[in-house]
Amino acid sequence: MPLAVKYHGLSGIRIKAEAEKDDFYPTPPQATRALLEHENFSGPVWEPACGDGAISKVLIDEDYDVISTDLVDRGYGTPRIDFLMETRPYQGHAGRPKSIVTNPPFKLATHFLIKARYLVPEKIAMLLPVKALGGGNRGKFFAKHLSRVLVVPRRLCQIKRGGWDGGKGGGSMIDFAWFILDPPTAGECKVMWPFGTEDS
Fold first, then answer.
1. In a designed cystine with 148, which of 15, 41, 42, 180 is the match (CB 3.0 to 4.6 A)?
2. Which ranges of 88-146 would DSSP assign to H, the alpha helix?
């Protein structure tokens, strides 16, 4: 059964406590490493949709203090933490998080973005389909908060059910990008291709 969502403003979003397991798409490690070549984050960093730890493990390898939580128990991090119901930053082993890096459920992207901006004071990075730039309510939010869009070539982002296959193909044909929100300031957003193109 798909997620049933009812929006209740910035203070919380109620979600039916069933997650469709086939909606789980681990993040290719290459995509996270590419992000960290161009962006730095204040720690601790919160990964609120950690899944099997794909993003968290790369962050830890780069010496970040990471707080990993998820609504669903996939064997990594602290399970049964509903990010969209949190009213204050989750107090992890490393203290209160200052930044967020995550690949949220795409159906809940808008809710994750709004909640993240409400909960942490520093930078936010979310891996989303490029088409997420469209949409009325999300567009209004981006106009106020979005700083950069870092487009990721498909060779670095073969997202598929079951995990990354080393870039061998067979993944999604959707184009992805890292959506970067800096500390709250209204400004001009830049769309960038810092990782090269498909042919590079």
1. 180
2. 109-119, 136-145
Do residues 113 and 127 touch, judged by C-beta distance below 8 A? no
Identify the helix (H) or strand (E) that includes residue 80. none
Closest CA to 173 of 112, 125, 131: 131
Tokens 């957003």 -> residue:
189
| H/E stretch holding 151 | strand 146-152
d(CA 158, CA 166): 8
For the chain, list the domains and their CATH numbers. 5-192 (3.40.50.150)
CA angle 124, 130, 134 (to 5 degrees): 95
Distance CA 165, CA 170 (A): 8
pLDDT in tens, 87-125: 988 877 768 899 999 999 988 999 999 999 999 989 999
